[in-house]
Amino acid sequence: MTNVEHPQHDPVSHPRHYTFGAIEVISAIEAWALPFHLACVVKYVARAAHKGKYVEDLQKARWYLDREIARAQAGACGAHSDAHSECSPYGQSNNRLCT
Hints:
Number of helices: 3
Helix content: 40-55%
Radius of gyration: 15 Å
Largest sheet: none
Shape: flat
Structural class: mainly alpha
Distance between the termini: 29 Å
Order of helices and strands: HHH
Low-confidence stretches: 79-86, 91-97
């Protein structure tokens, strides 16, 4: 892996717990066009080992994942069903990200 230069630490726009590794977490979330709940899952999993509240962050990720699963099972995520009759939010325009 090559060395990656990250922007200087900024607690608002580039906090250290999101700027480790080869890609900043927000960049991955935006590149993958993740909907709100799944973006939060990625955010909390990614920062868990870097922010000092490992178990709490994993619990938060699970909370959002459980909500997304419940929404998908109920068909509430607003997208068309696929061949397996499961709801998938991909393909929607959803620019909201968790904070």
